[in-house]
Amino acid sequence: MKKILIIDDEKNIRNTLSKTLTSEDYEVETAINGEEGISKVKETDYDLILLDFKLPGISGMEVLEKIKDYGAAVIMITGYGSVDTAVEAMKLGAIDYLQKPFSPSEIRELVAEVLERKQLQIHESTGEEIPRETCIKFAKKMINERNFSEARKYLEKAVATDPNDPEVFNLLGVIYEFEDDENKAMKNYRTAVSLDPTYKPAQDNLNRISEFSHSRKGINLGKPAEDTESLTTEEGH
User: Fold this and answer.
1) 219, exposed or middle or buried, with CB in 10 Å at 0-12, 13-18, 19+?
2) How many angstroms separate the Cα of 1 from the Cα of each of 21, 41, 69, 84, 95?
3) Model confidence pLDDT, tens digit, residues 14-31
4) Each residue's pLDDT tens digit, 157-174
5) Is 132-210 a domain of CATH 3.90.1310.10?
């Protein structure tokens, strides 16, 4: 069960965040100001801290400075138009920020992603094997963000776990196609199909790219991860 601490002086924000996140997966505690938050961080090992930038007395940035070495991931809560402040906080060690106003779905998605990111960092720092499903999820996210070098890194880890997984080779094909290397793209799509002739995403991509005049619109990444969308583009050949 992941432990989360909310440090915010606004009661309605504390209640909203606590109600949204309290579940069988998260144990949530709250603090009404920076002093109380620092005290709790010193006494308890938290996985994640949601820290309001604007606090009475000691500021959120000062709190961040004092708790950054305790191992918890920190998400800063900022007001509208405070992106510059959030960027400064991330330079000091915050892993992400949440801007007011926010919805419950935004909170849940960001918290889940940040905790997964932290787990990835732990795996990488200790040399532990990252679960294949996690590698695939982050590879899809990186592909959607056009960060192909990071996507390839996660796919290499996934293929090391299971070299006979058609999904990995289909995603590698997608990367090569967007890098304008159609020969390698087709090679990876064919590999995916040879591993599993029933794997439709690779078959769809192979059929599409084999057409004399084809478009990248409708590239099939397979079943989307929870926080990603299917990759589509109007680019064509």
Assistant:
1) buried
2) 12, 17, 22, 33, 20
3) 999 999 999 878 999 999
4) 888 888 999 999 999 999
5) no
